[in-house]
Structures are given as structure tokens and as C-alpha cells.
Amino acid sequence: MRILIGAALCWALAGCSVYMATKQPDAKNVDLFRVGTPRTLMLAEFGMPAASETKNGRTYEIFKFVNGYSAGAKAGRAVFHGAADIVTLGLWEVVGTPTEGVFFTGDEMVFRVRYDKDDLIDEVVVLKRP
């Protein structure tokens, strides 16, 4: 009976910080922002640009995204939060949930790229990077 109650308590106490850690944004390959990267690869990694325009026969695009965390980092934090919840009987959530919500939300980044006639990047301008 004690094991059943303990298991139910652990399940109930594993709360928001565990969930938040697993749902943080994924890491993006920002190394693609370099001369010579094909536009198709950029679209595959970052999705549609926030803005796109053609000036003087050249395409300019702005990519705005949140760069997050690797799957391993997210899983590690989730395991830590779960263990801390169990050890503290749920009191860890008072610290863990705000920590995930404030400090582990990823970094907003903005880049402007220009493509040549073959749709390869020929210029990268960092507009916002942490």
C-alpha cells in the first residue's frame, strides 16, 4: 500500500518544470548562416523567413527564430526536475517552474541574408544575437 501511495505521490508531484523542460525550443544550426549555404537548406532548417524582398535582382531575407536546446540538454533538465520533485516532495516546483519559465526560454536571433543568382548566401548580417 505504501508503494502505491508513494508512486501516486511521485506522479502527482512531477509537475510543470519537468514538462516545461521537455517543451523548450529546439536548437537550430546557426552555422548555416555563412557564405555559400543554399537557400533550400536555410528554409529546411529555419522555415519561411520573417521577411523577403528582391532589390536590384538580389533576394534579401530576414530569419527570426528562437534558438533553443539539444534533446539531451532538455532531457537532462527534465530528469533533474523530476528527481528534485521527488526528493523535496514537490517543493522544488516553487524554484523549478519559474527557472524554466525565465532562464530557459531560448535566445531570440535575427539574421539578414542576401543570395546570389544561384540562391547561395553571399552576405550575412547579424541583426540580433545574444
Automatic annotation (TrEMBL):
The keyword Signal applies. Keywords: Signal. It comes from the Bacteria. Residues 1-20 form the signal peptide. This is Beta-barrel assembly machine subunit BamE. It comes from Methylocystis borbori.
